[in-house]
Every structure is written in structure tokens, then in C-alpha cells.
Amino acid sequence: MLWIVRRRPRRRKKTLDAATAALVEELRRQAKAYLPGRLAELATLHGFQYNTLRIKHNSSNWGSCSSKGNINLNLNLMRVPQELQDYVMLHELCHLKYLNHSPQFHALLESVCPGHREKQRRLKEFKLI
Ligand SMILES: [Zn+2]
Q1: Domain span holding position 65
Q2: What is the arithmetic mean of pLDDT over 104-110?
């Protein structure tokens, strides 16, 4: 029975050991120094206008975009190759035009980020810490 296997409570994700906490703070520092400029650059290059950017630490997504044009990027992006960072940023920028994953959204994303589906697959090899 599944419930027997799961009897032991899982360790809470919010409780980071000291080494992980230090790594997260270093990634946050790097993310704040790099991501705002790169997002602005990609937005200008492809004609997107967003509202605000926030750097987040969570274990559920690499980035998000709200209907108000506010973009969140995960500080874990500093652990992946630049072309995958750009893929995530372009993905969120395309949500400024389509707040869904419709064929139109994917066509737009492919036009600004060729080979985006392969990049999406590669990103899945990285775990969020
Ligand atoms: Zn999306």
C-alpha cells in the first residue's frame, strides 16, 4: 500500500542546510547582477515590453509572467547554460502576448528562439534547488 511507503514525513523544502543557503544567496547575487540587463536586452531586441522583473527562489518554476506584465525569474537560472537562460526569458516574454501555451504561443517562441522545444527538454535535466 502506498500510504505505508509514505509514512515517514518528507523533509520540508524550506529548510535549507547552511551550505545550500549560502549557495542560494550567491546565486541570488549573481542573478540580480545579470538577469535584469539580459532580460531588457532580449525584450528590446524582439520588441517586447514588460512591467517589472523580480528574482525568485522557488522549486516549482524557472519563471512566470502575470497578466499585468510582471515577470519572475528563478535564481536557479544562474546554474544553467546561457542559451537555456535565454530560452526561459524569451518564453516568459512571449507570455506577454499569449498567456497560455497555445500553438500561436509556440510559433511566436520558435520565431524568437529557434529550437525552443529541444531547449525545453534540456532544461528538464536541471533540478531546481
Ligand atoms: Zn509558459
Answers
A1: 17-123
A2: 98
